[in-house]
């Protein structure tokens, strides 16, 4: 089905974090872009090119001290250890672009019902430091931007990374305007898990049915009770059964069903959806890329199945 994307994808060739040989496959952003084009899922016209987030946007979430350290390369050795990726100017450029991309995807979602950033989901970043490959919390930056503009008041974050969204939970912990839902492997990174609005702790090796049986009732109830004006979806590829940093047992098909079912619940309630990527460390990078491409396909299928729900508000 060529050229049938009823929403925009956001991509920049400098999304690559330039990590070299690292368990985080930073080339995946380019590989996702190339697969979408190669398989005719998207054309060049379906893509928007982001600008980096402004420092004003970043500083709604992050401290001046952390922003200065990133921009000047003055992180301490312990801060680099916590970040778990080598520092470079390319890294800084990539995460500012990723935050700009999630802002752009969110603005697109408010217009079209869906918006997809082919980067982002950096959910371990705290206001004053980075952790777990995450330096800047793009989703939080986008939420604060939309709130500052007056585009939305209430947002929900549905985080399906195999690792707990600790940065998200910490940033929004005392904020009744943002509902944070994290479904993750309980026995995994990070050791300290600040409470989300709702934490769904999965046992080791949980499979498709067990996972979806926990996730979907929780999503339905959260959407009905909280009634957000936008949903940010952190689409984790790492609950996959062959992930090197995960210990759950979901299949590619199960992950695609997960994406589609969450999108359908939001779409039926006329809630715009922003998709970002999240962890994926499969032994074969092609598996990680396929899982992320499937998230776009799930969004396309739901958008086409529920066309009347595309405009959330007048």
Describe, in plain words, how this protein is organized in 3D.
- Strands 2-1-3-8-7-4-5-6 form an eight-stranded parallel beta sheet.
- Helix content is 41%, strand content 12%.
- The protein has helices at 28-38, 55-58, 64-72, 77-83, 89-112, 138-149, 166-171, 208-226, 252-268, 285-305, and strands spanning 8-10, 47-48, 114-117, 155-159, 178-185, 198-202, 230-235, 273-277.
- By secondary structure, the chain is α/β, with parallel strands linked by helices.
Q: How would the blueprint of this fold be written?
A:
Elements: E1 8-10, H1 28-38, E2 47-48, H2 55-58, H3 64-72, H4 77-83, H5 89-112, E3 114-117, H6 138-149, E4 155-159, H7 166-171, E5 178-185, E6 198-202, H8 208-226, E7 230-235, H9 252-268, E8 273-277, H10 285-305
Parallel strand pairs: 1-2, 1-3, 3-8, 4-5, 4-7, 5-6, 7-8
Helix pairs in contact: 1-10, 5-6, 8-9, 9-10
Described by strand count, sense and barrel closure, the largest sheet is:
8 strands, parallel
How far is it from the N-terminal to the C-terminal residue, by CA?
A: 30 Å
Topology as a string of helices (H) and strands (E): EHEHHHHEHEHEEHEHEH
- Strand order of the biggest β-sheet: 2-1-3-8-7-4-5-6
Class based on secondary structure composition and strand pairing: alpha/beta
Helix content range: 40-55%
* DSSP strand content: 5-15%
Low-confidence stretches: none
Chain-averaged pLDDT: 94
What's the β-strand tally? 8
Radius of gyration: 18 Å
Individual helix count: 10
Shape verdict: globular
């Amino acid at each position: 089905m060529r050229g049938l994307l009823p929403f925009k994808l956001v991509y920049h060739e400098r999304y690559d974090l330039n990590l070299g040989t690292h368990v985080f496959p930073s080339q995946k952003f380019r590989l996702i872009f190339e697969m979408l084009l190669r398989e005719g899922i998207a054309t060049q016209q379906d893509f928007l090119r982001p600008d980096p987030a402004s420092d004003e946007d970043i500083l709604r979430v992050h401290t001046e001290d952390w922003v200065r350290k990133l921009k000047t390369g003055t992180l301490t050795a312990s801060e680099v250890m916590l970040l778990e990726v080598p520092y470079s100017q390319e890294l800084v450029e990539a995460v500012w672009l990723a935050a700009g991309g999630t802002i752009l995807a969110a603005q697109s979602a408010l217009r079209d019902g869906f918006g997809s950033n082919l980067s982002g989901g950096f959910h371990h970043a705290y206001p004053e430091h980075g952790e777990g490959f995450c330096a800047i919390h793009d989703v939080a930056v986008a939420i604060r931007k939309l709130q500052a503009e007056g585009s939305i008041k209430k947002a929900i974050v549905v985080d399906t990374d195999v690792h707990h969204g600790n940065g998200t939970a910490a940033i929004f912990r005392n904020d009744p305007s943002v509902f944070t839902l994290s479904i993750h492997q309980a026995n995994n990174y990070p050791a300290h898990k600040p409470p989300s609005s709702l934490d769904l702790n999965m046992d080791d090796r949980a499979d498709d049915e067990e996972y979806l049986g926990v996730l979907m009732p929780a999503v339905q109830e959260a959407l009905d009770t909280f009634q957000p004006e936008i949903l940010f979806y952190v689409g984790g590829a790492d609950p996959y059964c062959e992930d090197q940093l995960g210990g759950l047992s979901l299949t590619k098909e199960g992950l695609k069903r997960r994406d589609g079912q969450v999108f359908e619940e939001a779409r039926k309630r006329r809630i715009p959806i922003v998709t970002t990527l999240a962890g994926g460390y499969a032994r074969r990078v092609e598996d990680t890329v396929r899982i992320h491409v499937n998230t776009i396909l799930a969004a396309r299928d739901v958008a086409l199945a529920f066309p009347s729900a595309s405009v959330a508000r007048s």
